[in-house]
Amino acid sequence: MQIIPTLNTLRRNPSTTILLMLQAILTIAIVANLSALIVDRINDINIDSGINEEGLIVLDMYHFAEDFNGEMTLNRDIESLTQLPSISHVSATNQVPFSGSGSSGAYSIQPTSSDETTYVNAATYRADHYLAETLGLNISHGRSFTAEEVMTFDEAAEQASIPAVISGPLAEEAFGRINVVGEVMYMPETGDVPIEIIGVAETFMSPWPKWRGMSENSIWFARKPSNSNFKTLAIRTEGISYAEAQRLISETIYTNDRSRVIVGFENYEQMRDRQFDIDHALLFSLSLIIVLLIGVISLGSVGMAVFNVERRTKQIGTRRALGASKRSIVSLFCLESGVLLGVSLVLAVPVAMLLNVQLMNMISIDSMSVVYPLGVGLALIVVSLIGILYPALKASLVPPSVATRTL
Amino acid sequence: MLSYYFDLAIRSIKRTPFISALMIAALAAGVGMTVTMLSVYMQLSHDPAQSLSKQPYALQLQSHPASQGGSYGGAMRQLTYMDANAIQRQRNDGATVVMFKSSFAAISPNTEIDPQFVEGRVTTRDFFELFEPEFISGNVWSEQVDLEADFVAVITESLARSLYPGQEAVGQSITLNISEYRVIGVIKDFAPQPKYYDLNNSAFDNGESVFVPFSLTPIAEISNSGNTNGWRAEVINSYEDFINSEYHWIQVWKAFDSPSQRESFDRWMRGYIDEQREAGRFPNPDASYFLRTSEEWLEINGVVVDESRILVMISALFLVVCIINTIGLLLGKFLKSAPAIGTRRALGASQWQIFLQHIVEVSIIGFAGGLAGLVMASLVLSGLDRILSSGMGVSHLMLTQLHWSMWLWAPAIAIVSSVAAGLLPAWRICRMPPSLYLKIQ
Amino acid sequence: MLKMIGINKVYKTDMIETHALKSFDLTVDRGEFVTITGPSGSGKTTFLNIAGLLEPFSGGSYYLNGHDMAGLSDNQLAKVRNEQIGFIFQGFNLIPDLSVYENVEVPLRYRGFKRAERKERIEEALAMVGLSARAKHLPAQLSGGQQQRVAIARAMAGRPAFLLADEPTGNLDSVMARQVMDMLEDINAKGTTIVMVTHDPDLARRSQRNVHIVDGQVSDYRQFVAGESTVEVENA
Questions:
Q1: B206 in helix, strand or coil?
Q2: Torsion region of A137: left, alpha or beta (phi above 0 gives left; psi -120 to 50 gives alpha)
Q3: Burial code of C199-219, b = ≥16 C-beta within 10 A, e = fewer?
Q4: C52, C91, C111: residue with CB nearest B346
């Protein structure tokens, strides 16, 4: 019915039409891609570490005494800390999931190293047998360690086999399945001595959430603390404030041995967040751009629609004089922007996909689902139609007499 | 005439306060985001070594099997102690910096002051010559100390203040872990950003506050607190095992006074590589070495994160949308004033004069948008600073400070954007046949 | 003063070509007061636009003050309009957000006069139309007749040799219309050539010569001699 005059109006104002369409196409393409990027990064940030993060405290300390004995000092620390009523478990470990630094190694399912040996990389946890309970790690197959299995590297290397707990993804990558309890692996450091898998934790993340091919692979050996200067304790607290925990724990640590400095004392959540600081900054920036973009184009579109109505006041008056109802004037404007945005949406989908390809070249991100531009486009159409109502209603109030006035 | 256009522009802007504010806000948003992201990008790609008097080169040695390691421009980022030490002992050809990061408990002779954890750098005398930290008092150790170790240390101003409050630090003793050192120099706090000379752990941190001679490494058994990488498994039972291992953990930098010096060093390096390969230490038959300029080194180490490039691109696209939006509004606004323009044309204004009048108006809007954009950029940067600096544990993050060049870029971007936005509308209005709008007003 | 020989003007749209002026010839001597009449669509407005250099013409030649107007650049045309032609419109065409003073100032600004000279000329022009007291008013605060007088002041401030008026009294009641006509006659008496488009035969009769246009061509001339009745002149 009104579609032909509508198309004519759009054709007769080519620059305005092109501008509005260009604006809509770019907006859809940008917002769709940013939304996809945001969803992707939120998923990254919320990735499951496989442990119970609440109430977990990570303590880093640095020893400087000459006669430092790591094993003895840490055993004393663990003993006295667990005696505190608000602390349930303490574990001496070299690293925790998402700690950002730690060690890793190459592991294989073949005993001898040759050029054909294929290795799987995994984060190497060296911790006492308290680690699973302290972190709240869920050993889904097999078992955790016993106290007797905790030994030094040299002691372990002399055993018939070295027990280990591995993460599900590592099992999957090495063996193609999860339940690999009883299977053996090898590492170059110990040559032919088999690593016997005694347990599998379905999810047990490495210290590096962003290290592709490594982030989900972990292997845990029961080791006594070494004499390295840096020591890490994972501490499970219950019903105690952070400040109170900090006071109590530091007091205990310094009472046990004054020849050290507490270098880091953090809530697990705090430490975890640190690994995602760039993602948080990116999310902040992208969200800001989306909000500003929507603000600019919605206000701008209303502004342009107001001009459009003012410029066509006489034409609208003529239409009214010729018998057009107020409703038909409103629907004329809605139809105009509807057609314009509909065409823009069709054009915006390939543009959005093109932008996505460009982004994929610049950053590691999965290709965007076409749902994003379509969803954003439809939302834009709905919002714009609501936005056009005000100027359209204003237009419908133009009295028919305008048409007959010269001034 | 320009003052007349200026006067007309101000009237025109005042006449449509809402639309003018909208255009200024749109430009401010676009310019603000672009300037923010450009600033972060510039800070990331900033090369502090550009201001040094000598061009330093990062040295990479590709001694490992070609199949393993080498994700940093075909080689590992660091060298083994053995190779680094050999290069440091051959010290005829230009400045040589050999170093690694370590951590210490720093203990003041004043027992009332608690031991504190400090980051330290174990390095050669040439570190100070090449990277030019500024001495406040004292000096660096002599060349002799690089060959025959001595327990001396250079510390930063902040550390000096906290260990020896109110006292001269040079000449004092400082205990690092269990060894006692003599403070021989105090430098201003030194933390170039990005920390181009050691990009292992983070390109942005607070730097180190104590510097001790590299020659002490085997004597004081100073442990590495930077990265240690290996390409084969080794059993390490002692510190001696560690420094004689094929682990890569030492950074080496060179600088040359003349091309002939560089040639001479090149000859020596080739000889050294051949010698080691023949001795069976370097399994790679094509073992070679690379000298990277600081600029190349920052590039190889990926200091400019992908996220930053993406944000520059996206914010530029956003700016384009803001410009398109402004074009639409200007077009609407200018066309509305067509009758008055028709009258002006009849009264003797040329197209060019009408065009200029409108360009002056959009420039004023652009200038206001640019200023507002700068304000916005500094707000967004302080937001980013809160997110990033708490994460990195850095007190003052250069990254989130407005890069100096933005004072030039921001107005330039704003004016160019607004003129770009105004070009089409101004052209349209000046090309309008005047007679069209004269008959009926 | 003004000489048009064989002027053609064609408007083209997608579908039709309209010949607004066809081999149009007209000569206006210095000091004359000529009225142009004709039915709607006869080409009056087109003639005015071409005479006022607001529209290009498709063929023929146009001499103003002895100079050929064909092939002049936009800049040169603007300069001619500014310095030699004054415009008066039916709708007054005052710029609504400029005061009376500033409206009169517009052509002087484009002429590049210094502030003092502008002030002198504006005051003189406003005095001539009797609106010195209203200099600071905005057009909307004035009556229609006052607005048209401002427009006359604006047209005359540049002291043009040639005044083009398009139905200057069309929007005015008869009292005000008479005032404006008196003013134009006054201006003409002081030596300014005037060409006025009108549909009002009474007004046409007050001029020295009337040119009637039909279908883009001059259909007849009437020479008026003060106080006497019409003398028919055979059309050229």
A1: coil
A2: beta
A3: eeeebbebbbbbbbbeebbbe
A4: C52
Query: Does residue C84 fall inside a structural domain?
Result: yes
- Residue B115: domain span: 53-300
CA dihedral C5, C11, C17, C23 (to 10 degrees): -10
Let me know whether B184 and B325 are in one domain: no
For A271, the token pair is 């430490």
- Among the candidates B269, B300, B331, a domain finishes at B300
List residues bridging with C24 in a β-sheet: C7
Q: What is the CATH number of the domain that holds C87?
A: 3.40.50.300
Q: State CA A211 to chain mean position distance.
A: 13
Specify the pLDDT at position B397: 65
In a shared domain, residues B281 and B338: no
Tokens representing residue A161 in the block? 């086999």
Q: Is A405 on the interface with C (CB under 8 A)?
A: no
DSSP sequence for A313-329: HHHHHHHHHTT--HHHH
CA B342 – CA B349 distance, rounded (Å): 9
Nearest CA-CA partner of B112 in B157, B164, B179, B161: B164
Query: Can you read off the two tokens belonging to residue C44?
Result: 């009056």
Q: Are B391 and A45 in contact (CB under 8 A)?
A: no
Task: Please state the ipTM of this predicted complex.
Answer: 0.88
Asked whether residue C167 is assigned to any structural domain, the reply reads yes
Which one of B15, B337, B347, B438 makes the best mutation probe of the C interface by having the most chain C beta carbons within 10 Å?
B347
pLDDT confidence bin for A2, thresholds 50/70/90:
low
Judged by a CB distance cut-off of 8 A, whether residue A406 touches chain C is: yes
CA distance B89 to A41: 49
Q: Which residues of C touch A8 (CB under 8 A)?
A: none
Q: Are residues B155 and B255 in the same domain?
A: yes
B105: helix, coil or strand? strand
Last residue in a domain, options B257, B285, B300: B300
Look at residue B73 and give its three-state secondary structure.
coil
Which residues of chain C fall short of a pLDDT of 70? 224-236
* Interval B36-51: pLDDT, tens: 999 989 888 889 998 8
CB B429, CB B62: distance < 8 Å:
no
Shortest Cα distance, chain B CAs vs residue C49, angstroms: 6
Question: CB distance B347–C107 less than 8 Å?
Answer: yes
Between CA C177 and CA C182, with CA C181 as vertex, the angle to 5 degrees is 115
B124 pLDDT band, cuts 50/70/90, is very high
Question: Which candidate in B237, B318, B381 is best for mutational testing of the A interface (most A CBs within 10 A)?
Answer: B318
CA diameter of chain B: 100
Distance CA A229, CA B104 (A): 9
d(CA A168, CA A216): 8
Q: Which residues of A touch C171 (CB under 8 A)?
A: 407
Rounded Cα distance between B426 and B420, Å, is 10
Distance CA B30, CA B315 (A): 7
Strands (E), chain C: 2-12, 17-28, 33-37, 59-64, 67-68, 85-88, 162-166, 193-197, 209-214, 217-223, 231-233
Which alpha helices (DSSP H) does B17-80 contain, by range? 17-44
Total domain count, chain B? 2
Instruction: Establish if B362 touches chain A: CB-CB under 8 angstroms.
Output: no
DSSP B219: I
- By the CB < 8 Å criterion, does B322 face chain A? yes
Shared domain check, B208 and B114: yes
pLDDT band at A217 (very low <50, low <70, confident <90, very high): very high
Q: Please report how many Cα atoms fall inside a 13 Å half-sphere around the Cα of residue A232, on the Cβ side.
A: 21
Q: Which residue has the tokens 């076409």?
A: A370
